[in-house]
Specification:
314 residues, alpha/beta, Spore Coat Polysaccharide Biosynthesis Protein SpsA, Chain A, 2 domains, 8 strands
Length: 314
Amino acid sequence: MKLSLVVPCYNEAENVRPFQDAVISAFDGCGYDYEIIFINDGSKDATHHNLKKLYAEQRCPVKVVSFSRNFGKEAGLYAGLEHASGEYISLIDADLQQRPEIVRDMVKILDEQPEYDVVAAYQDRRGEGKVLSFFKKSFYAIINRISHVEIRADASDFRTFRRSVRDSILEMGEYHRFSKGIFGWVGYDTCFIPYTACKRNAGATKWSFKKLFNYALEGIIGFSTAPLRLATYLGIISAVAAVVYLIVVILEKMIRGIDIPGYATIIVLLLFFGSTQLFCIGIIGEYVGKIFEQSKERPIYIAKETLTYEEDKD
């Protein structure tokens, strides 16, 4: 098998068939074998039913992995990598904003330029609002400053890579996953190519601002210990400030005879130091929570049903 297309799906009932049609059209006459691996991430609509129909038809080699519930896109990508048989693996969304024709171009680059292990696509033009764009730019500026791995701001999960890269990613069995950081951590030589995202075929995006914020938080905690250092720095600054203020109060009392500040000053200081302590405890709690969940060694996903064309051949 030359190519495996990994396609996470969550409530994409209206998109899975048009996606398959687009793939068949794009790879017509390509001269090599390919497969589509659909990951049904606990969809609530008719996605599972429609995927089973595509599997039954087998217009092209199709695998379907259905989760027992919604585990998230990161778990879907991990499951797809586990079931991929191809020499090359491509990660692509089912909504057709990312076109299969670009995947064919990626494969060509990997074939003709063996020095590259990964071909990643980045959006040359974005249609999102200014507020969301500002927050995204701020996030990448922060994480690239505090993290020990470099994450390209405009690159997405839309990429094609060799099987050796896939094997390296699967070795990272962490429960809380952040794919962009994982690709940066494993390294490998990457070729970045521009693409323009098309209009979504059907349905609405599943990424709300809250989900994007939580995803960004996963990335910061997963690939940087800087927030823990921030808690230490705040503690040092607070301690120094307290000592300086104590010296000032004593000097004013001894030299100028000024009464020691009373109730209002004490309350303000208590609130300041108390809030600083709670903030630091919150940061530590985020890391401890991740450690706690990882220590349980729960599976990244649970597959309720797995349909593979290899079993049918047997």
